[in-house]
């Protein structure tokens, strides 16, 4: 994203001598020899308890302080939120140049670091809030009150929001104003900092380098749409479509907070019977009960060839869904990766994600990883190596003032950061009655909590044993789910939602509003923003067979169908026939239903599966799931249903566009373009041959295509076999510019190839066989008028002697849309 005119990096980065911010966690209240630490509590339970009134006041006042701190201060809420995505600048890394951070962020998704990296990130905010309580707030109160407030602060930790149980916006974040105490003993009404974030300067986000997100698939004119967060002074949460249409409207600038809509999204759909379980309850239950290794647990990413459906459930897809439910369909901040962290609910949500991981760690203490690939990101992660290990640096989080980075191994234990969760109090006297920690007794209580809070289908089956097979211990039942697999970055990295529906089956008209069952939100971001590459290798992985995955149990829904009388039983053949007839799904992007072309593009798979579930009536025993297998008759894809009557109508074939201007470009010749090559234009050069055999030459082994205006080469693509490189450059006024190179190894694997160049305004994006190869900053804004093809004297070309040249006025025209 281009910086606003005159933008400079925050001044704190240039201080000398520089002292790094040490993230140690709050150590007050920690008893190391007992492995005891203060507890992060559920926010509604904690804030409703009058005994915690001082803590609640301190929490709100400290958050308000951080929000009101200058956005250029290292410890401001703005700076901390900006670590995750935009404004794409260094944080606490003075050695990192601003230009090296442009278009890059720090956070990691879609790999094993997802839960790990966010742990010190949460601790950073927690620690800053605590320091504000101790250093800024408490000293202003009368001395006789300070000791009590200090005690409250020392035992306080960042609260979590358990959206799977409390499926509504937390009370503390629900209203635009709140009251806080004053040193005089009165209470003062102020703007609620948890309701929405507001710029302390009252200047738009763009003043601090936060701006546009481009979606090339949106917009009715076929040219894409910019979702512009730059004019905003405050955040939005689940806005209506009208609210987000005009980035210059007063409502968008000042933020739209629709907490009621968030509650509707988090609540159970009508199929769930309106009970205590929310939309995410069963997702969490499966996460904590399925037999998973750490890598499967942590992330949506599944490498090619991974087909074990029992491992399709993962922490990250549940996390993604909550982002979608809170941000809403129409670009609320939480649903857009570059700006999600500015919504205060991000932090309460991620605190619960950290809790889920901590519980899973306690149940599976020996499960970890040795090494993993970094896979693909929505944005390039600053300084992250291709291979991740337990010693990988979690930038930009430092454990001391000298700049030592936290690592996954160091961040593995919450006690290292001075906190724990309600379920994990190993020091409780109940588990130490004999002087020795009774781990099994503790685990039994954790399992009981999981059953009671999240076991939706377990509760139903034990309450209706005739739906299964009654056993001495409880009920054995059939269990059904759908794995949803898709290419995460196939829509140019933009987010999308896959919604699952169940037609009534009782003769009533079907309706997406009433038939809705569940969904999968692909929390992603464009790989190219403002012509700059944001994703480290999204476009490459988009072209591979690797997919993201999720696991949606539907047993609870099927039980409701049996109770309604529209499903006879949970027998496999009965359920299979019912789902074949009534299940359907659609793909949405920012509230708009996409056509089958888009479902084909993400290579959507919706795969039904069966397993056997043993529900034990003993509340300290988790349900045992085993015998996972596919149901071939319930395997669907990009047509949107299993029954022909429910399938999405095929998109009418687009009117075939006029044949693009094309010509044969012979080796040693040039071709003049009939129209100037300008913004959004596309050139494709097709070669019928690829020759990577080394040649003997006394000069540079060089096969080159040049894009020219007059005698000036505005862009050069040069294949250098001997050097194993592809070189990009310009020659303006007879002078060569600085070369830009990528490795040739691993490319040009087929006997034919296609080179595509897309003019993106500020630069050219180059694709090789329709896979992203490089992005090259323009050095001259004149249009390309001529394309030339040549080799050095007496050399054989890497490509065929004749290249087919095709020119399109836009990327969408190239796809025939």
TrEMBL record:
Entry-linked InterPro entries: ConA-like_dom_sf (IPR013320), Di-copper_centre_dom_sf (IPR008922), Galectin_CRD (IPR001079), Tyrosinase/Hemocyanin (IPR050316), Tyrosinase_C (IPR041640), Tyrosinase_Cu-bd (IPR002227)
EC number: 1.14.18.1
Catalysis: reaction(s): L-tyrosine + O2 = L-dopaquinone + H2O; 2 L-dopa + O2 = 2 L-dopaquinone + 2 H2O
Broad class of enzyme this protein falls into: oxidoreductase
Any GO molecular function: carbohydrate binding
Bias (Pro residues) ranges: 650-661
Pfam families, per database record: Gal-bind_lectin, Tyrosinase, Tyrosinase_C
GO biological process terms, semicolon-separated: melanin biosynthetic process
Protein name in UniProt: tyrosinase
Annotated source species: Helicocarpus griseus UAMH5409
């Amino acid at each position: 994203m281009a910086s606003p005119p005159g933008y400079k990096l925050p001044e704190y980065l240039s201080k000398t001598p520089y002292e790094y911010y040490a993230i140690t966690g709050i150590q007050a209240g920690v008893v190391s020899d007992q492995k005891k630490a203060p507890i992060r509590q559920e926010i509604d339970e904690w804030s409703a308890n009058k005994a915690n009134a001082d803590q609640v006041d301190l929490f709100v006042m400290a958050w308000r302080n951080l929000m009101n701190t200058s956005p250029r201060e290292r410890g401001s809420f703005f700076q901390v939120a900006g670590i995750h995505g935009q404004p794409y600048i260094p944080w606490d890394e003075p050695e990192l140049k601003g230009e090296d951070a442009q278009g890059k962020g720090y956070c990691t998704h879609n790999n094993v670091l997802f839960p790990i990296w966010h742990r010190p990130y949460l601790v950073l905010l927690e620690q800053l809030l605590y320091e504000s309580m101790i250093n800024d707030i408490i000293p202003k109160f009368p001395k006789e009150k300070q000791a009590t407030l200090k005690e409250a602060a020392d035992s306080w930790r960042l609260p979590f929001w358990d959206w799977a149980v409390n499926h509504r916006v937390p009370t503390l974040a629900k209203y635009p104003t709140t009251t806080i105490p004053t040193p005089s003993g009165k209470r003062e009404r102020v703007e609620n900092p948890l309701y929405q974030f507001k710029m302390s300067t009252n200047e738009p986000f763009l003043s601090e380098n936060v701006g546009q997100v481009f979606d090339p698939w949106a917009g009715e004119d076929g040219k894409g749409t910019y979702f512009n967060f730059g004019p905003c002074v405050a955040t939005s949460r689940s806005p209506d479509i009208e609210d987000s249409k005009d980035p210059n409207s007063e409502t968008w600038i000042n933020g739209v907070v629709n907490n009621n809509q968030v509650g509707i999204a988090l609540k159970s759909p009508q199929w769930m019977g309106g009970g205590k379980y929310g939309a995410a309850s069963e997702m969490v239950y499966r996460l904590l009960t399925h037999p998973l290794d750490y890598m499967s647990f942590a992330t949506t990413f599944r490498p090619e060839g991974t087909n074990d459906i029992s491992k399709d459930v993962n922490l990250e897809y549940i996390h993604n869904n909550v982002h979608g439910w809170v941000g809403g369909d129409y670009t609320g901040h939480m649903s857009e990766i570059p700006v999600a962290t500015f919504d205060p609910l991000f932090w309460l949500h991620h605190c619960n994600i950290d809790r889920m991981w901590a519980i899973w760690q306690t149940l599976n203490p020996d499960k970890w990883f040795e090494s993993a690939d970094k896979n693909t990101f929505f944005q390039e992660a600053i300084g992250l190596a291709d291979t991740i290990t337990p010693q990988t640096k979690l930038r930009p989080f430092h454990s001391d003032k000298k700049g030592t980075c936290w690592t996954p191994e160091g961040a593995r234990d919450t006690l290292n950061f001075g906190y724990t969760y309600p379920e994990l109090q190993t020091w409780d006297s109940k588990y130490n009655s004999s002087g020795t920690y009774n781990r099994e007794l503790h685990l039994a209580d954790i399992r009981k909590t999981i059953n009671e809070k999240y076991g939706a289908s377990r509760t139903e089956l034990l309450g209706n044993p005739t739906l299964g097979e009654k056993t001495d211990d409880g009920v054995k039942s059939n269990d059904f789910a759908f794995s949803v697999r898709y290419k995460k970055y196939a829509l140019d990295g933009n987010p999308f939602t896959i919604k699952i529906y169940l037609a009534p089956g009782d003769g009533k008209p079907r309706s997406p509003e009433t038939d809705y069952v569940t969904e999968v939100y692909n929390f992603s971001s464009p790989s190219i923003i403002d012509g700059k590459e944001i994703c480290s290798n999204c476009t490459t992985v988009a072209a591979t067979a690797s997919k993201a995955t999720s696991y949606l149990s539907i047993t609870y829904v099927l039980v409701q169908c049996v109770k309604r009388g529209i499903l006879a039983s949970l027998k496999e053949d009965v359920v299979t026939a019912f789902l074949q007839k009534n299940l359907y799904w659609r793909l949405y992007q920012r509230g708009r239903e996409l056509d089958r072309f888009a479902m084909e593009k993400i290579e959507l798979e919706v795969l039904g599966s069966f397993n056997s579930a043993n529900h034990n009536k003993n509340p300290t025993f988790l349900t045992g799931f085993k015998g996972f297998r596919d149901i071939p008759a319930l395997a669907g894809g990009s047509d949107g249903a299993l029954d022909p009557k429910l399938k999405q109508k095929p998109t009418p074939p687009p009117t075939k566009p006029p044949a693009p201007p094309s010509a044969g470009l012979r080796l040693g010749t040039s071709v003049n373009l009939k129209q100037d090559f300008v913004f959004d234009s596309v050139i494709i050069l097709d070669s019928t041959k690829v020759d990577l055999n080394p040649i003997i030459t006394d000069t540079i082994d060089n096969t080159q295509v040049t894009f020219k205006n007059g005698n000036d080469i505005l862009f050069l693509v040069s294949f250098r076999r001997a050097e194993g490189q592809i070189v990009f450059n310009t020659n303006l006024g007879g002078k060569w510019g600085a070369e830009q190179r990528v490795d040739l190894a691993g490319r040009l694997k087929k006997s034919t190839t296609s080179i595509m160049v897309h003019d993106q305004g500020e630069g050219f994006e180059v694709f090789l066989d329709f896979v992203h190869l490089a992005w090259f900053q323009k050095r001259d804004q004149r249009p390309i008028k001529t394309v030339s093809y040549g080799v050095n004297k007496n050399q054989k070309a890497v490509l065929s002697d004749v290249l087919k040249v095709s020119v399109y006025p836009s990327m969408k025209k190239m796809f025939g849309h």
